[in-house]
Specification:
- The complex is a heterodimer of chains A (about 400) and B (about 230).
- Chain A is an alpha+beta fold and about 400 residues long.
- Chain A has 14 helices and 14 strands.
- Chain A has two domains: about 190 residues, no CATH class; about 170 residues, no CATH class.
- Chain A is about 50% helix and about 20% strand.
- The radius of gyration of chain A is 29 Å and the shape is elongated.
- By secondary structure, chain B is an alpha/beta fold.
- Chain B is built from seven helices and ten strands.
- In chain B, the strands form two sheets. A six-stranded mixed β-sheet of chain B has the order 6-7-8-3-9-10, sandwiched between helices. In chain B, strands 2-1-4-5 form a four-stranded antiparallel β-sheet, with helices on one face.
- In chain B, strand 1 and strand 2 form a beta hairpin.
- Chain B is globular.
- The chains are: A alpha+beta (about 400), B alpha/beta (about 230).
- Chains A and B meet through helix 2, helix 11 and helix 14 of A and helix 2 of B.
Chain lengths: ~400, ~230
């Protein structure tokens, strides 16, 4: 869209210049729009729906991307079995982990070296709205794993006690799934797990995960293999060195991926939704542009005599063109403002989508940011330019003698 | 009241083309109209009187001959130059008033002045003066739909004179009015000619309206038939 605006920039600049320099007052166009309330409002209404959908689709896309992109730290890396794109299909044994834990490149804090061996399983949970169930990711981790996810904040209760059947859940999932209240229990892996804490994942992928102690989880599921290890290095630059070290150690046969890279790859999970959203938006946009064009053609046709009068009085063709282009722009911008207001109704709504790589649920919130609202308005402006251009040109080219007859 | 010719037509011709078929509307018109003249263009439907008026007013272009109005040869002017010329030299009065419905009487009269570098205050003075001249000072904030036909045409007259053009062209100015209002408009136009020295060229079917002019030009099948001086 930025490219489109770059192409349209000279035209836009001329239009803005025309608003100040040309003699046809903009109030004339604004009042003319209100002269035909029904057609103006119905066209603006159609445009508002398209703009609202556009903003909501962008917000969905942004919500999904944010969930993944904000999950990684550039000085952290995930260690997986080679060619495993996701943790779910990766395995690490205890010996491999023991070697990793001795690496001199690991950063450490007061609690010891920052490495967390983790195990990921998928578990089906009943949805709160009664609409069946959805898969959610259950992550078993070590205390270091919690400290390493600095974007995660505890809101209520406490963190896990190692070895116990406890879980901490994200606030975002509480509204969407049953039985995740503080103190409530869930049964899985043949054990009963109690919610002891509620956290906020800051919009990251962790907002879609239930966390439990890794040892307890592996015992419950009778696992002997971990899924992955999360490590923090001394600095971002050491990630490469660490990867080289792992690569060269014949005992390991593991792959190191930087955490941001790993999660950026996961944003592909939103691809089907994004493609569908974009497709719907494109189809609706074409429809809305034609609606605006149709309204403007009808406007020009019904005002042939008025245009002729203005021309007779000495207004020039490009002044008439700018005037009608402004009218189309006002019409579509009105739709844009209504659409943005409409999209605000979605702000803060929690929802989920299926990650097609892990087949588990990704929780995120629609966030209608000022940036998205601006994009929605810019989009309506584009519809005004695209839908109003031809009718405005036509208005300016009506032969003066025809216009004088009133068409 | 008559002076140097303000309108000079030499062998003026206008044809329309329909699928390469030439339809002549005006042929070989030679005419001089002095400054300060008041001429009625008359003739049966299809005689070419409105076409002649459009040519004189710079709304249409001739296909032959010379056209000089208000000291400018119009033949060679492009669209923008013609528009600029019209805004400076010509005031228009139409049969259906042609006011912009979404603008007030004041704003309608102000329209031609928006094309000049005049300040807002100067424009206001001019518009008020023009509206006072047609007796509509009280109605300046009204929209056309709130005015009677006669009042609308008076707003149109005010719009035509606000820029102080040398030439006024009127196309059937009384065509949509009842007898009383038509008489009022005719009296107003006569005053513009007599008191302000405006040159007026008016197309009309109405013999009573034509009687207000000083000269009547009769057209017949696209050629000038005769010019008559009106005796009053």
């Amino acid at each position: 869209m930025a490219l489109l605006y770059l192409i349209l920039a000279p035209y836009l600049a001329w239009l803005v210049w025309a608003a100040f320099r040309y003699p046809v007052p903009l109030s004339y166009n604004w009042r003319s729009l209100w002269q035909r309330k029904v057609s103006t409002l119905s066209t603006a209404g159609a445009i508002s729906v398209v703009v609202a959908i556009f903003v909501v689709v962008l917000s969905l896309d942004q919500g999904l991307s944010r969930a993944f992109v904000s999950s990684g730290r550039s000085d952290q890396a995930i260690v997986l079995r080679p060619n495993s794109r996701v943790e779910l299909s990766s395995t690490l044994d205890r010996d491999q982990l023991r070697i990793l834990k001795t690496s001199p490149l690991l950063a450490s804090d007061a609690g010891g070296p920052l490495i967390s061996s983790e195990c990921v399983v998928v578990r089906s949970l009943e949805k709160a709205d009664g609409d069946g169930s959805a898969n959610v990711t259950v992550r078993g981790l070590e205390p270091a794993g919690i400290r390493m996810r600095s974007q995660v904040r505890l809101l209520e209760g406490r963190w896990l006690t190692p070895g116990l059947n406890e879980m901490v859940v994200p606030r975002r999932m509480q509204g969407r799934f049953m039985g995740l209240g503080l103190g409530q229990k869930q049964d899985f892996g043949g054990r009963s797990w109690q919610v002891v804490g509620v956290f906020d994942g800051g919009g990251s992928a962790f907002d879609s995960e239930i966390w439990v102690d890794v040892v307890a989880l592996m015992q419950a599921y009778r696992r002997t293999m971990f899924s992955s290890a999360l490590v923090r290095l001394g600095s971002e630059k050491q990630v490469g060195g660490f990867a080289q070290m792992v690569d060269q150690d014949k005992r390991l046969k593991l792959e190191v991926r930087s955490e941001p890279d790993y999660y950026a790859d996961q944003t592909k999970a939103g691809q089907p939704i994004r493609i569908l959203g974009n497709l719907i938006t494109v189809i609706l946009t074409v429809g809305a542009i034609f609606a605006a064009m149709n309204t403007m053609y009808a406007t020009v046709a019904s005002r042939t005599q008025e245009i002729g009068t203005l021309r007779a009085l000495g207004f020039r063709q490009h002044e008439i063109m700018a005037s009608f282009q402004w009218e189309a722009t006002m019409l579509c911008s009105l739709g844009g403002v209504l659409g943005v207001l409409l999209s605000l109704g979605f702000n803060g709504i929690q929802t989920g989508a299926t990650n097609f790589q892990t087949f588990s649920d990704v929780s995120f919130a629609f966030l209608i940011t000022p940036g998205l609202m601006f994009k929605g308005l810019a989009f309506s402006l584009f519809m005004g330019l695209a839908g109003g251009g031809l009718p405005a040109y036509r208005a300016s080219r009506i032969p003066l003698t025809e216009a004088m007859k009133g068409g | 009241m008559s002076g140097e010719p303000i309108i000079r037509l030499r062998g003026l011709a206008k044809s329309y083309y329909r699928e390469s078929l030439e339809i002549p509307v005006l042929q070989g018109i030679d005419l001089e109209i002095p400054a300060g003249g008041y001429y009625a263009l008359m003739g049966p439907s299809g005689s070419g009187k409105t076409t002649l008026l459009n040519l004189i007013a710079g709304i249409d272009r001739p296909t032959g001959g010379e056209l000089e109005v208000c000291g400018h040869t119009l033949n060679g002017l492009d669209d923008d130059e013609l528009a600029a010329w019209r805004s400076t030299y010509v005031g228009f009065i139409f049969q259906n008033y042609n006011l912009v419905p979404v603008l007030t009487a004041f704003e309608n009269v102000e329209l031609p002045l928006l094309l000049t570098p005049m300040s807002r205050r100067a424009r206001r003075e001019k518009v008020e003066e023009a509206l006072a001249h047609v007796g509509l000072t009280e109605w300046m904030e009204h929209y056309p739909r709130q005015l009677s036909g006669g009042q609308e045409q008076r707003v149109a007259v005010a719009r035509a004179i606000v820029g102080d053009p040398e030439l006024l062209v009127a196309d059937e100015p009384t065509g949509a009015l009842d007898h009383k209002n038509a008489e009022e408009i005719m009296a107003l136009m006569e005053g513009l000619n007599r008191d302000l020295g405006k040159t007026i060229v008016m197309v009309t079917h109405d013999p009573k309206a034509a009687h207000h002019a000083r000269h009547q030009i009769h057209l017949e099948k696209g050629v000038l038939d005769r010019t008559i001086e009106v005796n009053r």
